[in-house]
Amino acid sequence: MMLLDLLSLPFAMPSIPRAMAMLLTEFGRPQPDLRRIDQIISTDPALAIRVLQAANASVFDLSGQIHSVAEALAVLRLNQLHAMVKASASAVSFRAVPGMRLPQFWAYSLDTAKMSRSLAGLVKLNKQAAFTCGLIHAVGELALRMALPRALTLDTVVPLFDIKRARAERKVLGFCYSQVSAGLARQWHLPPIMVDALEYQHAPFDNDVYEPLAGVIHLAVWCARARQAGLTANELTVTFPAEVGEVMGLDIDLVLQQDPIDWSVPAGPTSLASPR
Q1: Is the terminal CB of the chain with fewer CB neighbours within 10 Å at N or C?
Q2: Higher confidence at residue 5 or residue 1?
Q3: How far apart are CA 66 and CA 224, in angstroms?
Q4: How far apart are CA 218 and CA 239, in angstroms?
Q5: pTM for this structure?
Q6: Which fold has domain 102-257?
Q7: Integer CA distances (angstroms), 264 to 107, 116, 188, 232, 259, in order
């Protein structure tokens, strides 16, 4: 299957059931708290994408201009959001994804989003766009596993969240999860800067014009996957993408100092702690 063939298939991303329940509770209050709604949606890649897609629709004349859930909430009406959440809740939100523990995926995605935002702040890039890119950077992996059983055979050689996963997928499949994520983001009319960052996150210097946000996502992904793998201090040093860090003026110590992740706690199921 070619990349364009995969992108032409229907793709329904599973949401976090607890996030759906918390949103419905919030919308049931006499005066729903938009800040709380923003916080909950920003923990769930599927919900965040639905909101961003709606806000970037041509009807608002803002297609390709909305970078974050907070920006989307400023565009969408509360009744629109409520209807969107109810529709998502009535659908089969918790779908199995072959060979993937969804709680691990959600926790990993949120870790990457937080790290992306921290690094973007250091290099003076759009922190909201960075957070969103980090949150949704691996949605292409879900689409891959749902449509291409051959992708699962890689798991025994290169684990799902291994640092070398994108390289292995490109070698075997001809493309990787980051290109799928970018293709989906393009279909959802997300801002071009975010599409480029997603597409080149695995290799920031492959693009004709270097996009710094791709470098931010690359470093954040390295950090989150290193935690998933439980790398030692020596392994962190060996695997650190120094070429990307050098271009961005970020060494390994500076990157790890910005990391919001508690390295003393093993990676595990996601919580719905505030992404702020």
Answers
A1: C
A2: 5
A3: 25
A4: 12
A5: 0.92
A6: Hypothetical protein af1432 (1.10.3210)
A7: 16, 20, 37, 12, 12
- Residue 87 or 175, more confident: 175
CB-CB contact of 137 with 112 (8 Å): yes
- Cα distances from 19 to residues 2, 14, 79, 113, 168, in angstroms, run 34, 11, 18, 17, 33
Range(s) within the chain of domains with CATH label 1.10.3210.10: 102-257
Residues near 20 by beta carbon (within 8 Å), at least 6 away in sequence: 47, 85, 88, 89, 93
Q: Which two tokens stand for residue 219?
A: 């470093």
Instruction: State whether residue 97 is helix, strand or coil.
Output: strand
Length of the chain: 276
Cβ proximity of 16 and 77 under 8 Å: no
Give the tokens for residue 157: 């050689």
Other Cβ atoms less than 10 A from the Cβ of 254: the count is: 13
The per-residue pLDDT for range 189-207, each reduced to its tens digit, is 999 999 999 999 999 999 8
Contact by Cβ (8 Å): 46, 184: no
Q: Name the residue with higher pLDDT: 194 or 13.
A: 194
State yes or no: pLDDT of 264 exceeds 50.
Answer: no
d(Cα 43, Cα 273) in Å, to the nearest integer? 8
pLDDT digits (tens, 9 = 90+) for 104-143: 999 999 999 999 999 999 999 999 999 999 999 999 999 9
Sequence letter at residue 192: P
Q: What is the rounded end-to-end Cα distance, in angstroms, of the chain?
A: 39
